[in-house]
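ok new one. same drill as before - structure tokens go in, u give me an amino acid for every spot. 197 of them this time. try not to just spam alanines like last time pls lmao
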């Protein structure tokens, strides 16, 4: 089984904010897998592991792989609780985990997959690393542009995309979903080669 987690904050007031791009990527991935119609993930999802979840199977060239898609509802800074709970239940290792997050240091819509690394100032990744006791899990960062001065980063990530940014994000999300599928089917190195840059 593979666990794919999109990070964000629950609640209507946070919907489609920059910090919730991980949630949006999971929505698009569920649509790509034909598990949910567009925009229906939250309505059809099962609530478990302090998250909204969807479980299913992806048929690959080498067989089938069970997937668990998750959107933690713990709020961003406590994302590790949900991830740890799901991983413990299914006895998964960090190699079975891919986390999708927003990234201030990347241009809007640019993707960067890494097989491990530091949280880079992202509080959701910090909490997951704390909960798991390791930085050795894959993370897919989706660029949201740096915060323009004098706007503080914490305020910027909770704002909504500009119309121009929204177009780029809407174009990037299907690529992020495709990257997730490649990660499941062929591993992190192949996905990095195909989708980074």
């Amino acid at each position: 089984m593979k666990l794919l987690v999109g990070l964000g904050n629950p609640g209507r007031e946070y919907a489609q904010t920059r910090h919730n791009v991980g949630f949006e990527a999971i929505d698009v991935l569920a649509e790509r897998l034909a598990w949910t119609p567009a925009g229906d993930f939250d309505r059809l999802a099962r609530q478990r592991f302090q998250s909204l979840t969807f479980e299913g199977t992806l048929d690959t060239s080498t067989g089938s792989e069970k997937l668990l898609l998750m959107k933690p509802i713990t709020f961003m800074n406590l994302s590790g609780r949900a991830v740890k709970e799901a991983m413990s239940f299914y006895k998964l290792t960090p190699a079975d985990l891919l986390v999708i997050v927003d990234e201030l240091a990347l241009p809007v819509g640019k993707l960067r997959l890494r097989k491990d690394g530091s949280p880079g100032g992202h509080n959701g990744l910090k909490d997951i690393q704390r909960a798991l006791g390791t930085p050795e899990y894959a993370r897919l960062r989706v660029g949201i542009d740096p915060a323009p001065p004098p706007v503080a980063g914490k305020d910027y990530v909770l704002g909504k995309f500009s119309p121009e940014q929204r177009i780029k994000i809407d174009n990037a999300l299907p690529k992020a979903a495709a990257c997730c599928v490649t990660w499941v089917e062929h591993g992190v190195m192949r996905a990095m080669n195909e989708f980074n840059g």
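The CA atoms of residues 51 and 116 lie 23 Å apart. and btw The first strand starts at residue 2 and ends at 6.
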